[in-house]
Amino acid sequence: MSELPVIDIAPLLQAEAADPGKRAVADAIGAACREHGFFYVSGHGVPPALIERLDAASRRFFALPEPVKDEISMARGGRAWRGFFPVGGELTSGRPDLKEGIYFGAEQPPGDLPLHGPNLFPAQVPELREAVLEYLPAMTRVGQAVMSGIALSLGLAEDYFRTGYTADPTILFRIFHYPPGPADDPDTWGVGEHTDYGLLTLLLQDGNGGLQVRTATGWIEAPPVPGTFVCNIGDMLDKLTGGRYRSTPHRVRNRSGNERLSFPFFFDPGWDSEVPPLPYAGGQRWDGQVDFTGTYGEYLLSKVSKVFPHLFEQQQL
Ligand SMILES: O=C(O)CCC(=O)C(=O)O
Ligand SMILES: [Fe+2]
Predict the structure, then answer these.
(1) Predicted complex ipTM
(2) DSSP code at position 231
(3) Measured between alpha carbons, how far is 262 from 125 in angstroms, rounded to an integer?
(4) In Å, what is the CA distance from 273 to each residue of 156, 168, 280, 299?
(5) Which end of the chain is more exposed for a tag (fewer CB within 10 A), N or C?
(6) How many CA atoms lie within 13 A of 280 on its CB side?
(7) Spacing, Cα 41 to ligand 1 middle (Å)
(8) DSSP state of 184
(9) pLDDT digit string (tens) for 28-85?
């Protein structure tokens, strides 16, 4: 059993749901955000069959030989920042991670804007494209619903974010494969300790476990709970709330002996949006503010450059 709460967000997905139902969910979300900044989301409405298709297609992709996977390597994704990276290719806190993965974002036509453009999908696994393109809008809906609960919990109107700086959210989606690793090498992590940059992360993980969360009293596991996503607060929401809603460090080590897959979906402010302080609401002063000026896109670019320094130099973003 996990120490992190499971919150059924179904009322937040209903446009006409009675206020008291939404309010109770929002209160649970607010409490979880203040406690650990981590909770599980159930009642999210994403079909289990879609999740199964996504998982199966991803396993087929990662089982392909490396040269085939390299046909969609990030180097070919250019400034759009999409595609495959091999084990050790991504740095967290300056160290290579024991994972490989694929970066995706909202599917867009080619253009000059960094982190925007078409996704790279593997020709050998056509069903991956279908599953990802269905998953992104399904998760965007979940992201908006959780943000409506967060808005209510902050004393703001339910649609504060949805009609504001997440009206056209920045969506990043990744699929990670953690091969079974040297289980207890103290220096080797699937993902090293870090916090997430933005507003919300919604993580689908398979049954293998391995995600750990740093609490005031030490590291705890966030084990898989069937039918849920793990939701955690990013740095931006932490800053906006003056640290009341926590962006909590977490890390991954795959000790299962199996191939672990995870699917983090990042739900963040629009690329061109500025992120002003939250208004006075519900009798509460939200005196936090983000520590950057300019747009969310500029902030994100400065972060991503640290994770893939080589690519960043090549692409001259
Ligand atoms: O793979 C996981 O379980 C967590 C991944 C993660 O923390 C991230 O991508 O930010
Ligand atoms: Fe993370």
Answers:
(1) 0.99
(2) E
(3) 18
(4) 19, 9, 20, 11
(5) N
(6) 2
(7) 16
(8) T
(9) 999 999 999 999 999 999 999 999 999 999 999 999 999 999 999 998 888 888 999 9
pLDDT, tens digit, for every residue of 244-275?
999 999 999 999 999 999 999 999 999 999 99
- Going by alpha carbons, the residue nearest to atom 6 of ligand 1 is 264
| Nearest CA, atom 1, ligand 1 | 262
Q: Global pTM?
A: 0.95
Determine the distance from the C-alpha atom of residue 129 to the mean position of all C-alpha atoms in its chain, rounded to a whole number: 19
Domain ranges of the chain: 13-310
Q: Which CATH architecture has domain 13-310?
A: Sandwich (2.60)
What residues flank ligand 1, with Cβ below 6 Å? 174, 176, 191, 196, 203, 205, 211, 250, 252, 262, 264
Nearest residue to 143 via CA among 193, 204, 80: 204
Residue 217 burial class via C-beta count within 10 angstroms: exposed 0-12, middle 13-18, buried 19 and up: exposed
